[in-house]
Design brief:
This protein is of the alpha+beta class and about 500 residues long. Among the domains are: about 5-250, no CATH class; about 255-335, no CATH class. The chain contains 14 helices and twelve strands.
Length: about 500
């Protein structure tokens, strides 16, 4: 049986066409995202003539990232499974709503500590350029990104991952005890060790993750349930029958290529326009005029016939105008495709709902499918893994399997909390129109709890038992107050009767 290294090499042939396109896409945007073969951190990467590709890429990636993980707003909601809600007569008690909201706050704080927004930005950039990326969820809740030239995939006919192999380089000091360090051709220990991670789906839908060195020595083997697998295999756009994804840059590659050519031509025209040279008559070159002209400086006096000398300058204004017009047209077209002409979200601690809604509408127009897939496929898996680790670390209340269903809020649903408050206010106005009869017909605590949770004050909701105990105490006090006058009157009459009895 072939080792992981041999299997990795065997699967690279099918990846070649996708990797070549990814490298070409990167060369027109940000070359470091998918460098050319053989180029490392020390190599001088190719530099495109224009910066529009990079600016457009960063703009779209930033807009998508902020829509997935809005600043100052939760990206998820914890819900009770429908079966459990039915057992509660269709109403989630206010105190339960409050506990769910507190759980959301804990998760959101953990997300901020792990800096998901930064890693998601890098991941989205890879998807826009290369179309495919592998995400690894780490034990500290951070995200590690594997780019296209460092992994190979094999999917089934339904698009499910059958096999993935990752290529990494570890420092030899990171190898576990007992794993031999490979040696180079001179017999010296390798400083950087090739590590191949093989992720293989079994027939029971579980996954086996094995790590081994390039020379076949085992490093580790772990089995995961499908939902607990700490790897994600993301695609920008999935084409039926293809293992790898297609990219956003691929959709606009014609415009990017044209812009690159026109900008290069514009620079050449500019350089030619800046070129000045002196032309002299052939008959005048024999008397040393050429040498004298080549040595003169600004302000020098030269004796000669002015008619024998002529200053020449390149002039192709019509060509320059055509190039400039084409450049402007292409920039406008690409700006619309990558949302670089919109306002975008402000760099603020908390953005408004209107800003989020505007951004989401624009993203849905240019990347609706990939955006929706990312919100579900990426964030749902991440949240599940995060909750598992938080429960194991005692940072989240233990819950039964599937007791809480994390609902990922993206798109317009990210504004659902505010919509809850608005609906509660509308319900309050409707109830008020019917007076006391309207109040009797509704469960005020349920409405009030939903409104307080939506406003971000779950701690303000009192438990139902506490409210019931307080009501009972008030009733008992009221009964005691009503009974007090009768008791006083009875005691007074008894005292009078005692005083009226004759003395023995």
């Amino acid at each position: 049986m072939a080792g992981s290294k041999e299997r990795y090499q065997a699967l690279t042939a099918y990846r070649t066409q996708f990797l070549q396109r990814a490298r070409h896409n990167a060369s027109l945007t940000i070359p470091s995202l998918v460098p050319l073969e053989g180029q490392d951190a020390q190599a001088h990467l190719v530099e495109p003539y224009q910066s529009d590709g990079a600016n457009n890429l960063i703009s779209l990636a930033s807009r998508i990232t902020m829509a997935l993980l809005p600043a100052g707003r939760p990206y998820l909601r914890l819900d009770i499974p429908p079966k459990e809600v039915m057992s509660m007569e269709g109403d989630v008690p206010p105190e339960v709503q409050a506990e769910l909201a507190k759980g959301e706050t804990l998760i959101q704080a953990a997300v901020e500590r792990a800096n998901w927004r930064s890693s998601t930005m890098q991941e989205v950039q890879q998807l826009i350029v290369a179309g495919s990326v592998t995400e690894e969820y780490m034990d500290d809740n951070t995200i590690r990104i594997h780019r296209l030239d460092r992994f190979v995939w094999r999917r089934d006919e339904r698009g499910r991952m059958l096999e993935c192999l990752l290529l990494e380089k570890w420092d030899r000091e990171a190898l576990p005890d007992g794993v031999p360090v490979p040696v180079d051709s001179t017999g010296a220990l390798e400083d950087d060790v090739e590590i191949y991670t093989k992720i293989h789906r079994r027939q029971d839908d579980t996954y086996t993750v094995t790590k081994e060195t390039g020379d076949g020595h085992s490093v580790s083997t772990v089995e995961f349930r499908a939902r607990d697998l700490p790897y994600l295999f993301l695609r920008w756009s999935a084409t039926p029958g293809e293992d790898y994804g297609r990219s956003k840059v691929e959709e606009t590659i014609a415009d990017l290529r044209s812009l690159e050519g026109y900008v290069a031509a514009s620079r050449q025209l500019g350089a030619m326009a800046a070129m000045n040279f002196v032309m002299i008559r052939p008959s005048a070159s024999s008397n040393g005029l050429r040498n004298r002209l080549s040595r003169i400086e600004n302000g020098d006096v030269v004796v000669g016939d002015p008619e024998t000398v002529e200053l020449k300058q390149f002039a192709n204004t019509q060509g320059a105008q055509i190039v400039a017009a084409n450049v402007q047209e292409l920039r406008q077209s690409l700006g619309k495709a990558y949302l670089s002409q919109g306002a975008g979200q402000r760099d603020a601690e908390r953005v408004t709902a209107a800003e989020i809604q505007r951004d989401i509408n624009e993203i849905e127009a240019v990347a609706g499918g990939p955006f929706s897939a990312l919100s579900l496929e990426m964030l749902e898996v991440r949240t599940h893994l995060l909750m598992q680790q938080m429960i194991a670390a005692g940072e989240f209340p233990p819950v039964e399997e599937d007791a809480l269903m994390p609902t990922i809020l993206t798109g317009l649903e990210a504004l659902s909390r505010e919509r809850d408050v608005n609906r509660v206010m509308q319900a309050g106005q409707l109830i008020g129109a019917f007076g006391e009869e309207g109040i009797r017909q509704v469960k005020i605590p349920v409405l009030l709890g939903a409104g307080l949770v939506g406003l971000g004050f779950p701690n303000a909701i009192r438990p139902a038992k506490e409210v019931a105990a307080e009501k009972q105490q008030e009733q008992e006090q009221a009964m005691a107050q009503r009974a007090a006058p009768a008791a006083i009157n009875a005691a007074s009459k008894a005292q009078e009767q005692q005083q009226q009895q004759p003395q023995g």
